Amino acid sequence: MKSKRQKGNFHQILAPLLFLLPNMFIFLVFIIVPAFQGLRMSLMDWGVFTDPVFIGFRNFAELLQDSVFWVTFVNTIVFSVSVVGLMVVSSLILALLLKRNTLTGERVFRAVFYIPSLLSMIAVGIAWRFILGDEMGVMNYLMRSMGGPGVPWLTSGRLAMMSVIFVSVWAGSGYYMVIFISGLQAIPTELYEAARIDGSSSWNTFWLITIPLLKSTLLVVVVLGTIASFKAYELIFAMTKGGPGYATKFIVQQVYQVAFMEDRMGYASAMSIILMLLIGFFTALQFAFSGKDQSYE
Amino acid sequence: MNKQYPFKLILQYIIILLLAAATLFPVFWVAISSFKPQSELFRFPMSFLPDEWTLENYQNALSQGNFLLYFSNTVFVAVVATLITVMINIMSGYALAKYRFPGRNIIFYAMIATLMIPLQVIMISIFLQLKRLGMLNSLWGIIIPPAATPTGIFLARQYMVNLPDSMIESARLDGGKEFTIFWRIIIPLSKPIIATIAIFSFMWRWNDYLWPLIVITDNRKQTVQQALANFVGQLQINWSNLLAMTTISIIPVILVFLTFQRFFMTGITSGSVKG
After folding, report:
1. pLDDT in tens, B53-88
2. Nearest to residue A179, comparing CAs of A219, A206, A209?
């Protein structure tokens, strides 16, 4: 016969642990262990056919000299900063246009702008590659039929980078629009009315009321957008395969190639560590910047 | 206020309509072009609508290669993974919301913190781990490892914190077993959040490319996204077939979205979900 106390202990300790068990097991086996394994591998010479050898920080030393890696490093940062910056602007504009709940057709428009977020990045890449193709894409067809020259959207280095940035913004804006709308709707309307009575222009109202009160939403959008953009791989693969040359090649693609095609898993792990530090650095930076004066309540 | 500034309102509508057109055009262009016969696809001058509508590209896409097999692989992965994801994340959310036990907060934050370690950063060691466990080239290798999602746990916990304790207490007094209480009382009360997690899980699984890329090399185990990527990766792209395949691949997610639209907005705003 169980005493009441024992039964209470079971309720409060064993039962929740059993409920948590499947998730904890998966996190342990498929995230935590691999994360430490990755750290260890970055310090080893690790190929598929050779025995792993501990080599200290030599992978990282080699990385410093690896010009291809640094190209992908710079590309990744350029891409991420541009995408996040443009996406904040575009999704905020969409949210400002569609935040009222009173506009006719507003819900339909919100759904329309959300549609690109439903598509896989591979499908998005295919669609835009079809549109931006040099000879046969509809974009160049329209430009030529208006008398202009065709533009090498995906086959000239700088333009290819701009194209993948633009398409990423196109694909992600609707998602962040939804977050911004809920942030905007949380701002008390009395503040806007007070500003109107005081004769504040809508430009001033935007900068002095909307933006300061939207800070925590902005932080969420910037952090999520940054992490997502550092992970980008599929879209670029479908659109440019990283080319022309290395023009749109990012760290993730380089890691995949070095690890799985060149069989240098230790070296590629060192690259992954750099990528993780980069994500951590940018996220911390954003928190640090937004940490000050959030004193609205 | 709108009546005072009809000009401003009209201007806003024009901007919205232009942006909406720019948003929808690529999707429509792919879908419409998939109904053009091959001879019309790159014909000059181009026409927006096909002169002659045809299903030829769909017939080719479905009959050549293994596209139907990839489709059924993807359905299997998306459905089974979603069932598992919902079940284990709801269980975790419940444990973290309704029990008091030592280490509860640490476990919660540790689980959320795994967000900071995306697959892209650990894909090499994940690959080796799956190899060690014999899960490479198995659909279970795609299904199980990403089934526990921090955002799913977060959403479930946030929702369940607000469920009344009194119901659980009285069920306990009536001698209900812990799992029975969870199954009979908590699950029925949590339908909205279950739906939200399920929908996002399904969408993410359907669209995911990187997990299948790492786990699957066997041609017969591939998913739709892998098939699309292989197709677009070729030197000579067969656009007619590819556009038909892409359109087919998009239909399920659009249907899910149109059916469950309201869950999307709550899901994003209450947790900013992926998976």
Report:
1. 988 889 988 887 789 999 999 999 999 999 999 999
2. A219
CATH number of A57-291: 1.10.3720.10
Q: Do A120 and B209 touch (CB under 8 A)?
A: yes
Q: Chain B 138-197, CB below 8 Å of chain A: which residues?
A: 144-148, 153, 172, 178-179, 182
Cα separation, B183 vs B164, in Å, equals 16
Gap between the terminal Cα atoms of chain A: 54
What pLDDT is attached to residue A25? Answer: 95
The token pair at A80 is 């991420």
Residues B174, B175, B176, B178, CA torsion sign:
positive
B99 SS3 class:
coil
In chain A, where the domains are located: 1-30, 57-291
Q: What is the DSSP letter of B46?
A: -
- Domain covering B53-271 in this structure, CATH number: 1.10.3720.10
Write the pLDDT tens digit of every residue in A16-42.
999 999 999 999 999 999 999 999 989
pTM: 0.89
Minimal Cα distance from B127: which residue of A? A34
B164: DSSP letter: -
The residues, ordered by sequence, that sit 6+ positions from A179 with a Cβ below 8 Å of its Cβ are: A91, A217, A220, A221, A224, B268, B269, B272
Q: What is the pLDDT of residue B271?
A: 57
Residue A5 has pLDDT above 80, yes or no: no
Give the separation between CA A250 and CA A235, rounded to whole angstroms: 11
| Angle, vertex CA B80, rays to CA B246 and CA B195, nearest 5 | 85
Distance from CA of A137 to the nearest CA of B (A): 8
